[in-house]
Amino acid sequence: MDLRVLGKTGLAVSPLGFGGSEIGFQETTQEDVERLLFAGLDAGLNVIDTGECYRDSEEKIGKAIKTRRNNLLLFTKVGHASGLPYEDWAKELIGVSIDRSLQRLQTDHVDLIQLHSCDEELLRQGDVVAELVKARDAGKARFIGYSGDRNDAAYAVGMGVFDTLQTSVNIADQQCISISLPGAKAANMGVIAKRPVANVAWRWGTEYPGDPYHIAYWERLKELQYPFLKEGNAVSVALRFTLAQYVHTAIVGTANPDRWAANARLLDAGPLPAKEEAAIRKRWLEVAKPDWIGQT
User: Is residue 224 part of a domain?
Assistant: First the structure.
């Protein structure tokens, strides 16, 4: 995989990254986490993204990569108390939570700390952003970013303080292509796409999804009726559509030890042809309803 430069950070990132939520929420064993991450690193992975509220994800990743820390870029998020004696988004929480993340990850710094989906009101208030800047200035992070969606993300981009934006970008979630990605591009921010394959929600077919996390995309895809979803290369097309936008790395979460490398091989097909990308975008603009907003 050819590396991409993550905007003004200058970091060279693999176009496919690893998202650490599933390994925490699905109680993946340490052995499988290590197998997954080592296979990914050997296949070209260099971006690992996690968060303070993904149960024991940070701890599992920290144990797994402690001998390979210099070979990868480590991103995490802050904002939720997740067991600490503070309210979510309390100013006093931020520094304590960052220190806990560093301890869990067994490192003295991360490459990127991101505010985890706080709303515009909190961004305007400014104190949590100031705490993030303080952590960066203390050497606990090389760069700072915002992770979120909708108008909150657009406001974060316009603040001019963040180096990166992490937001939902996929065939069933394209609001950001109009409201936040243009500003991010103009500001040379790095963009990290979450949910890049729309949770593969089409796999449920006509059966109502058992996991509420997949319902919004499943309902949208039923109406979008993309022809390629009936073909065997649907995941490849979906992933390459995301990477055809102003996106530097797409974070794929999985608890399957073999899945990341398999997804990486899908990129061997090369960039999605402009005609196919345009057809997907056109269909969205024709069908999308006003309430089809970015999914956090």
Answer: yes
Residue 249 within a domain? yes
Cβ burial 243-252 (10 Å sphere, 16+ → b, else e) = bbbbbbbbbb
pLDDT digits (tens, 9 = 90+) for 259-294: 888 888 999 999 999 999 999 999 999 999 999 999
Domain harbouring 272, CATH code: 3.20.20.100
Q: List pLDDT tens digits, range 133-171.
A: 999 999 999 999 999 999 999 999 999 999 999 999 999
**Distance, C-alpha 2 to centroid of its chain:** 19
Split into its structural domains, the chain has a count of: 1
Is-above-0.85 flag for pTM?
yes
Give a yes or no: residue 294 inside a domain.
no
- Helix, strand or coil for residue 157? helix
CA distance linking residue 249 with residue 6, whole number of Å: 8
Q: Does the residue 235 lie in any domain? A: yes
Beta strands in the chain (DSSP E): 4-5, 12-13, 16-19, 47-49, 73-78, 110-116, 141-147, 164-168, 190-194, 249-253
User: Using DSSP, how many helices (H) and how many strands (E) does the chain show?
Assistant: 13, 10
Instruction: Please answer whether residues 100 and 90 qualify as being in contact, where contact means their C-beta atoms are separated by less than 8 angstroms.
Output: no
Range of the domain at 226: 4-287
Question: Which residues, at least 6 apart from 129, have a Cβ–Cβ distance to it below 8 Å?
Answer: 115, 123, 159, 161
